[in-house]
Amino acid sequence: MAETTRQAHDAREAILDAAAELIRTQGATGMSIADLIARSGTSAGAIYHHFGNKQGLVLEVARRAVAGPMQSVLHTPTEGGLSPTMLLTTALTRVVQATETAELMIQIWAGAAAEPKLFELLRAEGQGMRSAVELVVRHWCEREQVEADPAGVAAVLISLVMGSVVQRSLIPDFDADRYLATATTILDALVEPRT
Prior knowledge:
mainly alpha; 80% helix; elongated
């Protein structure tokens, strides 16, 4: 039984790795199941067993690339909670520092524009992520007695992360350090402590 579970896990990971590479190089709509089978060394049955359909697979690749790391950021234990600036710094470090992640997300977003079902899945995932970030910001503001709009701060924070993804993918000389410095200045201005 343990061997079967391990084999299933390995097959799932091989499919996700292959799908991420194919999406990055061919786009979400350009990735074919035949190419995925060849690249992953698995079968159509394994793909549909683990992910249900192509949209489910693309969504899982997106979760793995961005949502998973963002969730780990949100659950990073710190004394006093994560400030919006700490959230942003950690998110940029974990989510968008790799060029492959930026290229992958651009392709997934482009695929969502062509596939309404994928768009709706990504929209729901994005709304859930924004709600989770808002909750962390709200708790931090309460603890630190900061008068700020947690929903607005969460929206700006996520926009800064996604903006970094886009710029890193499209601008060859993108300066991540400069971007982070400016972005943290913006967030700090939104959550200045009460006087």
